[in-house]
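Researcher: Hi, I'm a grad student and pretty new to this. My advisor asked me to get structures for two proteins we've been looking at. I'm not sure of the right format, so I'll just paste the first sequence and hope you can take it from there.
Model: That works fine. Here's the first sequence with its structure tokens right after it:
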Amino acid sequence: MSQAIVNLVYLISAVLFILGIKGLSHPRTAVRGNLMGATGMFIAVVVTLLDRHIVSFEVIIAGLVLGALFGTILATRVPMTGVPQLVAIFNGMDAGASMLVSGAALEEALSGGFFEEITVVFSIFAALAALIGTLSFSGSLIAFGKLQGFVVERPVLIGGRHVVNGLLLLVCLGLSVWLVVDPSTSLPFWLIVAVAGVLGVMLVLPIGGADMPVVIALLNAYSGLAAAGSGWVVSNNLLIITGSLVATSGFILTALMCKAMNRSLANVIFGGVGAAVATTREVEDIYAGRVKSASPEEVALLMESARRVVIVPGYGMAVSQAQYAIRDLVNLLEPRGVEVEFAIHPVAGRMPGHMNVLLAEANIPYEKLKEMEEINPSFAQTDVALVIGANDVVNPRARDADPSLPIAGMPIINVDQARSVVVIKRSLSPGFAGIPNPLFAADNALMLFGDAKDMVVALVAALREA
């Protein structure tokens, strides 16, 4: 296959990647964008394997069949609530693959294979792929464990961790210099892999579950950097382009997530938010004698007379998979002349857009989903704000000037400004930030204690009987 044809196919793939990312910017074009990106990757992989004569046609076909089968199983078996975990694993696999490709290229060069010589550029980017790729791989595994419940969700703060992390990074940089200065051995490369693996674990363990959306976006950016680095190693322009696109979009998304929480990236990575839990006295000072519990029947009466209801979904909705029951609730309210909208916080759930994906799965019209900035001014004209499993993103204490509060200054959804607020929650336990929420004890708030799905189903039943 001529190089001109290969470059032409690579150009087509790159265009498909760019158009695919553009398509993902809106739900109406998201499916088409996803298909365009997948098509670009498919033809890029096939052409690369055919161009270099790396494997036979039989092996290529077998790989495509196995990959398609595995992907189909994941697509049909993994629930929407498990998508954040799946994304974390994908990030890790991408980064790990980039590291292995660079390692294989280095071993090939040392044995006189595809690469005639090991240049300085080759060594630098091989070290980059080893460091960032392995760090992202091990960090993604910890992120997956936190999301899946295999690893404790709260920050694990190890004494002297910053010093240890700094030393591990210095060791990786020293090994990288060794690899560049002495390219006659692959030992420093694999030592970087070992040390960077520990560094990835040490960096993600102290980060709490509430910050997983930011971590996932950041690890995605890391995996893109590792891919671009491996592209320089194997002299593959498309891999460089693809890795750069992933890295850039990942860093932009990370910045947007940090802005949504009014926190710096350094605070997310090193802050350990959620490690300290509120004391019993602090909880009693806020809640004692002020929390009002309600029944589904009482809430049904409240909603029956409402003209406007705003639903605020949180991770509790995802855990109980209450989105279908919520759809039934919307279908009951709207024929009664009730205007229903959804207020979506940028960091609600476990990954960017998590709530949007879950509600789309239940066929909630996208037009009903309003971003925080758009819907906040309208809460004063809202009869009932229904909070389902959200905590920190509706906590009025974020408006406090006290800098010691982990959510101080974070933009929140202003549900406390509605005429009535109904909060569905299992208990009064604090959110991931570890602080109590005075919204639960507000004069205009009612607590509906229980599983989110069970309570919404009971609310639907009460409305039907009303």
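Researcher: Oh nice, that was easy. Here's the second one.
Model: And its structure:
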Amino acid sequence: MAQIQAKPTSPIKTNPAKEGGHTPVKFIFDKSNYQWFIIAIAVVVLGFILMSGTTDIYSTTKIVIAPLVVLAGFAIGFYAILKKPSAKA
């Protein structure tokens, strides 16, 4: 069997404007977004710590306060995702 050699259709073109200059990288999240993420993770972990334990499983802390703290942590996480980065010129 003979193999068919494929020819490239056209040479790869590069953008001459990007070759000479350095374009800054634009991230989706800002530093404050990541700080809010860390706070959210800490609050969720605190809620699970409050929920842990084997004694007195019907305490108010375990069935009311700890789930509210976990939900607050998730709410902070959603805020961190939806918060727009500050506009820097």
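Researcher: Is there anything I should tell my advisor about the second?
Model: You could mention this: Residues 33 and 80 are 5 Å apart (CA to CA).
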